[in-house]
TrEMBL record:
The protein's annotated pathway: Glycan metabolism; pectin degradation; 2-dehydro-3-deoxy-D-gluconate from pectin: step 2/5
Organism: Brachypodium distachyon
Catalytic reaction(s) noted: Eliminative cleavage of (1->4)-alpha-D-galacturonan to give oligosaccharides with 4-deoxy-alpha-D-galact-4-enuronosyl groups at their non-reducing ends
UniProt EC number: 4.2.2.2
Protein name: Pectate lyase
Domain Pectate lyase: 140-338
Length: 479
């Protein structure tokens, strides 16, 4: 049901129960930023700066998307400077460090045979390690997980340079009581429930997991999380769900498709720690065959900016329990159904209760009869601050979202054509790329392991594999 709380499914050891007995005692809860309007203003400032730099340079590398321009146009080869990505976050998740400063871990094995004792070289073995770790992939791979992937703090999962699928009929990604995680450039799809099994969460701890919901990416009391350039579709529950006091989150440049309940932000109407939740949803494409929850919000502050909504079946943005929703510079294209033109939905709440909620639309483009119902008279001050720098016009949505999804490949997990100008799998699809096998580079000059110049790519990976060997011998705690 739309108003039902997200299921709580974690079994804790006694010390963790004692630690989490009150919201104030847990370091991840109620740790929101005191001035969300300043984060919104900083977001718009970065977009404006990137746009100005693009105009001054006459185009070239610059796209006007401040995230991509930051790491793509830095004057260095991203393959040799992967960790620059950690400096490019914007919005409420801008402080997510991921594995910055840590060694490179190259995933070479797509298997997940033993969730308690994962083999070195697997994604599970990488994500459970202590300390910062920057995780990359040696080749294209589909990783069908037998149990939830429990990601430890200070990890980056960086799919650039390979075509990486997680899920595909297996379990998917869980961030539980962790911080500083970046998930970049991977496909997450066809995720199913798992659990009633032991799963390792660190080199020194494994524990029993009850049945999971089947989310694509699940955040449970997590903070400083950034999901960027992912493609998400067809999961058993949500594509991205954040509950139980999770905060400081950005979801950007991603492509969502083929799903019912897309994104849940907030555990239940009466869960007070979610009042501190702060989330930025930016530069995403909400694509074909989506029904609702893009997102569905509770209590916190949600900046929904410069996204492209190409139809929905029920509604686009929903909420309950008085969330603050700041919608700026989005394009909302309503479906043909005359009864589903409204962008917004107050879930299971009478108008007399929601008319004071702070929901604003500014600079949004309404197409095909779409309409946004604002509310919150008497709450102007917070929006005066939030709007102190004008939001980018929705006319720029095409430009800002053209690369949404996994870079260099089909944007919705293989169910649509590759982007124009992208040479995917070494086959030219236009945009000046050479014909035939081409050079295997995607739209941002990325090498793909399933085509193109693999020898060149391998030459970059060999030093990384040597570093991995040293890292495995010296740094990793035995399981």
């Amino acid at each position: 049901m739309a108003g039902a709380p997200k299921s709580t499914r974690i079994i804790f050891l006694l010390p963790l129960l004692l630690l989490g007995a009150t919201a104030s005692s847990h370091p991840l809860l109620n740790a929101s930023l005191p001035e969300p309007a300043a984060v919104v203003a900083d977001f718009h400032s970065k977009v404006a700066t990137s746009r100005r730099r693009m105009q001054e340079s006459g185009g070239g590398c610059m796209t006007g998307n401040p995230i991509d321009d930051c790491w793509r146009c830095a004057g260095t080869d991203w393959r040799q400077d992967r960790q620059r990505l950690a400096d490019c976050g914007i919005g409420f998740g801008r402080n997510a460090l991921g594995g910055k400063g840590g060694p490179l871990y190259v995933v070479t094995d797509s298997s997940d045979r033993d969730p308690v004792n994962p083999s070195p070289g697997t994604l599970r073995h990488a994500v459970i390690q202590e300390g910062p770790l920057w995780i990359v992939f040696a080749a294209d791979m589909t990783i069908r997980l037998n149990e939830e992937l429990l990601v430890n703090s200070y990890k980056t999962i960086d799919g650039r340079g390979a075509n990486v699928h997680v899920g595909a009929g297996g379990a998917c990604i869980t961030l539980q009581y962790v911080s500083n995680v970046i998930i970049h450039n991977i496909h997450v799809h066809d995720c199913v429930p798992a659990g009633n099994a032991n799963v390792r969460s660190s080199p020194t701890h494994s524990g029993w997991r009850t049945r999971s919901d089947g989310d694509g990416i699940s955040l449970y009391s997590a903070r400083d999380v950034w999901v960027d350039h992912c493609a998400l579709s067809r999961c058993a529950d949500g594509l991205v769900d954040a509950i139980m006091g999770s905060t400081a989150i950005t979801v950007s440049n991603s492509y969502f498709s083929h799903h019912n309940e897309v994104m849940l932000l907030g555990h239940s109407d009466d869960y007070l720690p979610d009042s501190g939740m702060q989330v930025t949803i930016a530069f995403n494409h909400f694509g074909v065959q989506l029904v609702q929850r893009m997102p569905r919000c509770r209590r916190g502050y949600f900046h929904i900016v410069n996204n492209d909504y190409t139809a929905w079946e029920m509604y686009a943005i929903g909420g309950s329990a008085s969330p603050t929703i700041n919608s700026q510079g989005n394009r909302y294209i309503a479906p043909a159904n005359p009864n589903a033109k409204e962008v917004t939905k107050r879930v299971d709440t009478a108008e007399g209760q929601w008319n004071g909620w702070n929901w604003r639309t500014e600079g949004d483009m309404m197409v095909n009869g779409a309409f946004f119902v604002p509310s919150g008279e008497g709450m102007e001050d917070i929006y005066q601050k939030a709007s102190s720098i004008d939001p980018k016009s929705s006319a720029l949505v095409d430009q800002l979202t053209i690369g949404a999804g996994v870079l260099g490949g089909p944007r919705d997990n293989g169910e649509a054509a590759a982007y124009a100008g992208v040479n995917y799998a070494g086959v030219s699809t236009g945009g000046g790329a050479s014909g035939g096998r081409g050079n295997g580079y995607g739209v941002l000059g990325m090498v793909y392991a399933n085509g193109g110049d693999w020898i060149s790519c391998r030459s970059h990976l060999i030093p990384s594999l040597a570093s991995l060997l040293v890292f495995a011998l010296v740094c990793l705690h035995p399981l």
